Amino acid sequence: MSDPLNEMICFDVYAANLAVGRLYKPLLDELGLTYPQYLALMILWEKDGRAIGEISGILGLESSTLTPLIKRMEATGLVTRRRDDKDERRVHVFLTDAGRKIETERLRLTQCVADATGLSFDEFVQLQGLLRKMRKAIQK
């Protein structure tokens, strides 16, 4: 009898997502971060001062989901929020020194995750490319 889950790519993607999440958890716990908070920091390290709407678009989260996450990050001193001078409805998020300092851990976390996958560098890059291609096709 065959396993019906072996025929479902969605299960493999789901199970891989859970495994990667479990891999990141202890690493991020050391930094006092959740995975979504880490993703938000990564976006801000790339370009500080982004609007909440821009961050939510990149992460694929609703602003109503992202706002409480950003507020918690502000409460822990990682970011500050400021209303746009020209449009009071827009809120921009800026890194604090503490938020910038965590970026020094980025390479270590990336290396730990890459090492744990059991993939070569080329396989890792290929897998990432295929997952992005699949995600973009599904989102169309």
UniProtKB/TrEMBL annotation:
<dbReference type="InterPro" id="IPR036388">
    <property type="entry name" value="WH-like_DNA-bd_sf"/>
</dbReference>
<dbReference type="InterPro" id="IPR055166">
    <property type="entry name" value="Transc_reg_Sar_Rot_HTH"/>
</dbReference>
<keyword id="KW-0804">Transcription</keyword>
<dbReference type="GO" id="GO:0003700">
    <property type="term" value="F:DNA-binding transcription factor activity"/>
</dbReference>
<dbReference type="GO" id="GO:0006950">
    <property type="term" value="P:response to stress"/>
</dbReference>
<dbReference type="GO" id="GO:0005737">
    <property type="term" value="C:cytoplasm"/>
</dbReference>
<dbReference type="InterPro" id="IPR039422">
    <property type="entry name" value="MarR/SlyA-like"/>
</dbReference>
<keyword id="KW-0238">DNA-binding</keyword>
<keyword id="KW-0805">Transcription regulation</keyword>
<keyword id="KW-0963">Cytoplasm</keyword>
<dbReference type="GO" id="GO:0003677">
    <property type="term" value="F:DNA binding"/>
</dbReference>
<dbReference type="InterPro" id="IPR036390">
    <property type="entry name" value="WH_DNA-bd_sf"/>
</dbReference>
<dbReference type="Pfam" id="PF22381">
    <property type="entry name" value="Staph_reg_Sar_Rot"/>
</dbReference>
<dbReference type="InterPro" id="IPR000835">
    <property type="entry name" value="HTH_MarR-typ"/>
</dbReference>
<feature type="domain" description="HTH marR-type">
    <location>
        <begin position="6"/>
        <end position="136"/>
    </location>
</feature>
<protein>
    <submittedName>
        <fullName>MarR family transcriptional regulator</fullName>
    </submittedName>
</protein>
